[in-house]
Amino acid sequence: MSIHIQSKLPNVGTTIFTTMSALAAQHNAVNLGQGLPDYAMNQDLIALVSKAMNDNYNQYAPMAGWMPLRESIAEKVMFLYNTAVNPDTDITITPGGTYAIYSSLTTILQPGDEVIVFEPAYDSYVPNIEVNGAKAVLLPLTIPDFRIDWQLVKQNISPKTKAIIINTPHNPTGAVLQKNDIEELRNIVKGTNVFIISDEVYEHLIFDGIEHQSILRYPDLMERSFVCFSFGKVYHCTGWKLGYTIAPATLTKEFRKVHQFNCFSCFTPAQVALATFLKDKNSYLQLSPFLQEKRDYFIELMKDTRFNLKSSSGSYFITASYERISNKADADFAIRLTKEFGVATIPLSAFYQNSKDDKLLRFCFAKKNETLEAAVERLIRL
After folding, report:
1. PANTHER family, from UniProt (predicted)?
2. Is residue 28 exposed (0-12), middle (13-18) or buried (19+ Cβ within 10 Å)?
3. How many angstroms separate the CA atoms of 120 and 363, rounded?
């Protein structure tokens, strides 16, 4: 007799990312699906990690994170956003951005609460909400530009609304919030007890001279926000699973109560290395032009295909319509593309709870040029 588990996430199965990556490996496909680079990360940062290990920084870091790293983050926030954050009370180092989002939600949610989520949405948001006994209120972004309909947000604010999740630059579409979006958000939450979870893991991967509208720029929003970041996405070391959360001291105090009994502490050598590496402003200022060049190169290559690319102003990703090629459902078309043509993508329906199908695929362009070339060479045959 087996013991029965009542699932906390009964509607969750194997993620599309795992499925498509396995399919890509099986069919030796070029993988433009999962958001991970295939090029080398910065050798200076690797050397700093090695030095930290050789210097015996191999034991537990403090629960809140290596203080010199938190100090370097505070310096960066002041430089970028002219905002003072206290490294002792406002910054917590986490094992990745996804963990930071989960812990932020777990800190504030009680059963019966509601959280506004914009779809298509990063796939961890809704399970994070539901595992805490709360409900995701799903609002669609407008097609084709994936903007927020703020009037719809106003209509869905209720006494049960505990938080709004925003994500800029946006995964999976590459859309970014503008100043007018922030003004709308400010007006909506003013005088309420609504929290903001701001997913800014692609903070430095924003293109075309657009200014990143971090919540950290706005004191009135910051006082009610958990702002989540990822070193993995910034420095192309996704396997390190290292990020951080910035929140006011009163919110951080509660956040750390969750954090200390979950992972407690993060990988020390990388924290020591990043404390030094972050002081080099060019290490993050050059990231936008680097990734923009890859985006632009991929767009140019794709002109020879029958895909219609949508705009992307940030992140690792760009979406494309295949309406000139097929009328298959996006998941079926993505599988066909992998099996028959050797290119793995992610169907955009995977980012909707009801699998809404707009006949769009997500491509990751954070790859070596030869990887992008190999993929497009195959896509041209469609």
Report:
1. FI04487P
2. exposed
3. 15
Helix (H, G, I), strand (E, B) or coil at 76: helix
Cβ 163 vs Cβ 195: under 8 Å: yes
How far, CA to CA in Å, does 351 sit from each of 328, 330, 362? 18, 12, 10
Q: At what angle do helices 43-54 and 268-277 cross, to 10 degrees?
A: 130
Contacts of 189 (CB under 8 A, 6+ apart): 164, 196, 221, 224
What are the pLDDT digits (tens) for 170-198?
999 999 999 999 999 999 999 999 999 99
Q: What is the pTM of this model?
A: 0.96
Q: Residue 162: how many CB atoms within 10 A of its CB? A: 21
Cis peptide before 37 (omega within 30 of 0): no
User: What is the CATH number that goes with domain 43-280?
Assistant: 3.40.640.10
Q: Tell me the pLDDT tens digit for each residue of 81-120.
A: 999 999 999 999 999 999 999 999 999 999 999 999 999 9
**Superfamily the domain 16-41+285-379 falls into:** Aspartate Aminotransferase, domain 1 (3.90.1150.10)
The pair of three-digit structure tokens given for residue 1, joined into one six-digit string: 């007799």
Tokens of 30: 């070029």
Domains in the chain: boundaries: 16-41+285-379, 43-280
